[in-house]
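Sequence in, structure out. Go.
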Amino acid sequence: MKTRFYCLFVLFAATFLVNCSVEAAPYEVDIIVDGRPLLEYLHKGQTWVEGQKGARYEILVKNNTDRRIEVVASVDGLDVIDGLAGDFTKKRGYVVAPYGKVIIDGFRISMQEVAAFRFSAVADSYAAKTSGARNVGVIGVAVFTEKKVEVPKPQRIVAERSASPKRAPAGAARYGSAGFNAKSAPSHDMMLPESTVPSHDMMLQESTARPGLGTEFGENRSSSVVNTRFVRANPKNPTKILTVRYNDYEGLVAQGVIKKHKPSETWLRETANPFPDSARRFAKPPRD
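Output:
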């Protein structure tokens, strides 16, 4: 039985990007809230963004190349299409046109709807309520390029001349019974291993009382897709893996991602205001 090799194509994903004067990376990922990308922080080689509990977000993936790509995305270690453990070797994703983009706006529940991504407490996250909270706080995108289809060159057939030519029998090929001996086009079926569900005994279960943010299974939203054919150039090895980690402000400060500086005495002296409250008429005694 052949494994399906069809991916999803978001109906509005064919929007093409305007070329910029600044050379962009081949593939880009942004976390979008209220139509704007969140500010990114680089810390110890990792990319972080600050989320706010209750805010709905989307994953924007840009393809700045001249080839179609497939993107397999996960949130908190869960595949965004089937909600199971993320595995880019066995799961399929969304197809992005050359110089196009795709907005992944939730966990897919049908070909027409998704459950919105919303920042939440870890205990309220989709991961904590299903497979466990071990991998909350991370968004991953695996990028696969498309296999180039090689069209076989037509072969020139030369008929052998006979001293006493005979009429070809009915149904024979024009150039003799040998006919066209061209090789058939290569098969484009990609055989993927059968998906397996990891054992819960093998998964590290973390307490859902952890501080910080996760992503909840939010409200239903309209998001239509269709199936499209896509064959990976390399079925198991993505061209690029893009990772964005997130947490709330307190968590980012605790992790050293955001530096919270205590105002220096020099700064306090230089910025002291001689008239901080000019509305008061008379002096009040100090508090005990």
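Check: The longest helix spans residues 249-254. The chain has a mean pLDDT of 80.
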